[in-house]
Amino acid sequence: MGKLLGIDVGKKNVGIAIAEIGSPIASPFGTFLRAQHRAESKILEILSSNAVEKIIVGLPLNESGKLTDQCKDVIDFTRRLKRRTDVDILYVDEHLSSCVAQDKLTEAGKMANMKKQKGNIDKAAAAIILQTFLDSEMNPKIMTHNEIEGLLSE
């Protein structure tokens, strides 16, 4: 059975989550550095070794649902990824996923080591992004890569 890959693109790191298609639960997978395109390379490895059918990317829209400067960075990252894979890329609004992830990890008592904390937040945010998609697959706020490109050209 195929899988879904959730991605939280940050300035320094990319958090990854994964779920089986048909499963109601997303699981944190890992966090990878963006420097020297390491995260992109790792994602491509994950795609080929896990039969991933869709990539779900968090897009940090503002509270009005408009694109932000951070969105443009996320879209640049996914454009590079799209040039190297045929896997469908979908976007969901994630403007609060990192805050929610940090709150959940704090509640769970998993925020002791500061360095490890950031990696945990990134992959937990990716799981929240993917879980949002799983919980609302018919949600009109899910956008395709082509729809995002159209918004940029407006």
Provide an overview of this structure.
This protein is α/β, with parallel strands linked by helices. It has one domain (3-153): Nucleotidyltransferase, domain 5. It contains 5 helices and 6 strands. Strands 3-2-1-4-5-6 form a 6-stranded mixed sheet, with helices on both faces. A hairpin with a 3-residue loop joins strand 1 and strand 2 (13-20). Helix 3 packs across helix 4. The longest helix has 22 residues, at 114-135.
The CA-CA distance between the termini, in Å, is 38 Å
The CATH superfamily turns out to be YqgF/RNase H-like domain
What is CATH's topology name?
Nucleotidyltransferase, domain 5
Name the helix and strand elements from N-terminus to C-terminus, one letter apiece: EEEHEHEHHEH
Rg (CA only): 14 Å
- Class computed from helices, strands and strand pairing: alpha/beta
State the name of the first-level CATH class: Alpha Beta
- Averaged pLDDT, please? 82
- What share of residues are in beta strands? 15-25%
* Low-confidence residue ranges: 97-101
> Which range best describes the helical content: under 10%, 10-25%, 25-40%, 40-55%, 55-70% or over 70%?
40-55%
Question: Spatial order of the strands in the main sheet?
Answer: 3-2-1-4-5-6
